[in-house]
């Protein structure tokens, strides 16, 4: 369950441990960036619910430390008692929030937007896979590259972690649960939370809020629904539990990559993540948070390239040996 194993097979080469270290660093920087961005969204939610406009630096730092304690505890409890149970809670709360929002908005408009968006996406997929759309080139290049590299930061722990929890599953089950279901869930989620906005009277208000600060968009949307404060609070709880479940999985994966699942090791990784996140939430710049996550992912990009090259070389070598006549 180590990234370096893809280069050495069943042999051991101690110096290749540097690859696992690069992977761990990518994990730590990626999670720290997510944690800091979460604090920015939580702060905006607190301001929306309470109307408070004062400085919340101490609140952000305190909440970051609290989350660090919680995801360390969840990781220490292991897959069954900690990570699995928290993930189940996330899914249930997500379904409840989605159902409530769907009742309050124009459900028919959501379904129509869902179907039309799917058709449009399938049509433009070949083009956007190899370039940017002309009329939105700047936005597409910016966000596509950011999310691509950010996902590279998550690759070292998402891959091994999913492999670990998928042991015993068939390939069909694996693909269904890691590709099909998450994709459909994302399509439904964005359709429910954004599909009806395009046909609403407050569309321009939401667009203006997002243009000013994209953390405001969700709460401006909630402000036009009944029980807006309650919805905002539930969304904040869901946001926090999701980031906890992501971070505890990352700490667990860091232990796998370093072959060290001791509690002291998990605490050490958590302290590093929380320290990085505190530095970021003190500055409170969402663009800087993304840049930090990308900075941690860039070295691992070369590891991915090396993996691809090594796989091609070993495959070609194996094919050549198989083609040689015996004797």
Account of the 3D structure:
With 327 residues, this protein is mostly helical. The chain is 82% helix and 0% strand. The chain has helices at 5-8, 17-50, 57-104, 107-130, 137-165, 171-195, 203-212, 217-222, 228-257, 263-283, 286-323. The longest helix is centred in the first third of the chain and has 48 residues, at 57-104. It is globular, with a radius of gyration of 22 Å. 29% of the residues are buried.
The radius of gyration over CA amounts to 22 Å
The geometry reads as: globular
| SSE string | HHHHHHHHHHH
**Low-pLDDT segments:** none
Strand content: under 5%
By helix and strand content, what is the structural category? mainly alpha
Helix content: over 70%
Distance N to C terminus:
38 Å
Can you give the mean pLDDT? 83
The total beta strand count reads 0
| Number of helices, where a helix is a run of at least 4 consecutive DSSP H or I residues | 11
* Main sheet attributes: strand count, strand direction, barrel closure: none
Quick recap:
With 327 residues, the chain is mostly helical.
Keywords, separated by commas or semicolons:
327 residues, mainly alpha, 11 helices, globular
